[in-house]
Fold:
Amino acid sequence: MNTKMELDYQKAEEWGLFGQGARPAVIAGPCSAESERQVMETAQALRAAGVEVFRAGVWKPRTHPGSFEGVGTAGLPWLQRVRRELGMKVGTEVATGEHVREALEAGMDWLWVGARTSANPFAMQELAEALGGTEVPVLVKNPVNPDVELWLGALERLSRAGVRKLGVIHRGFSVYGETKYRNVPQWQLPIEVRRRCPDLLMLCDPSHIAGRREYVAEVAQQALDLGFDGLMIEAHIHPEKAWSDSSQQVSPCELKQLVEGLVVRAADTENGAYRANIDELRMQINGIDRELLDLLARRMEIAGEIGRYKHQNNIAILQPGRWEEVLERVFAYGREKGLGAEFLKRVFTAIHQASIDRQARVMREE
Ligand code: PEP
Ligand code: MN
Structure:
């Protein structure tokens, strides 16, 4: 198991990007900057809704050539205008060294790295070199594939190049086939990033996870329940007319309602009664974990005995039908206990695999 990462980063409270103690931290703005008017109208409405940090992509990584690939450098002066006239902090996506040079030259207050770029170490190295030592915060989206090491590796490249204002944005992972959300959240990955880098700013992008505006709020709430620091949400003055990601963008008015409807959970509390109760419950969990481990150890010992017995009788380890029979019994009893089949399958597949490994080891050693 990997221990905590050696990543040199500065806590987001010291960046001055988000208002003091703002929870959740909110970044909002259109998927793409389309025209000066669309950018200004969206930013004005968002500013009126209380948003202080504005996003808009000018270079857009699109799946198919021929789709709208962003207005490019021409969009940067529009973002400068948002900054100047509305006092918002503006940011855009960078994917190449040239993007970085132009974005920094245009005075962007922060930058983000997209999911297709963080998946590519060559691109990340190029970005790291172009960003070298910048004071501008850089937020790195998870790679499109669920690989924590690749995500952390992207951060390490930036950190080694001297970028200290680092954060991550969780935007879900690509899957093949029909799913409720456009990108499956697989929350265990950002949770692992938090375990390894506890003070790293962690935002969620519920828009790219949801893929549809009606699901954005529930994903945002789930992120806050898990302790994310904030959200990056796509908002457009006329979402249904957006040139990219139209179905997942919300209007500034919807954004305001959405943010107001969110429940922010405290990371911790000084409340004595709460502390005492939670400590008691945690002790119970620790005790149950021990019992589980004792049971698992006993199960493995018996698996070893089975291995020895099969070896003496010259029988193959894998017995067709046996695994299905185990699973069926587990599902039936699990259902009575209110445990989901998907969860049980994951747990018992891991146990079964370990037990086969143990039997194979015993056979080799006999
Ligand atoms: C975006 O934020 O508009 C974007 C392109 O996101 P992602 O890299 O998460 O697909
Ligand atoms: Mn988008």
Notes: The chain has a mean pLDDT of 94.
